[in-house]
Amino acid sequence: MSSTAKKILHEALALPEEDRVRLAEHLLDSVPRETAEMLERAWNEEALRRAEALADGETTAIDGEVALTRLENKLRALHRR
Hints:
Blueprint: H1 3-13, H2 17-29, H3 33-55, H4 64-79
């Protein structure tokens, strides 16, 4: 990822949730349709894999807010490098 993209991502992560959602939607809309469909299939496959892992006891669930906070902290740490 370029330094410009990293800066934009860092700034985007600081936006309110509603703005981040709108920004993500606009970015996804800018991706060619074939790529968007491929991404959707990949996300669906990942969701099924995670649901199966949860049902099989291979993993445990955590609160969504906790997960997002952990992810944001990891992304911020990456951008400080």
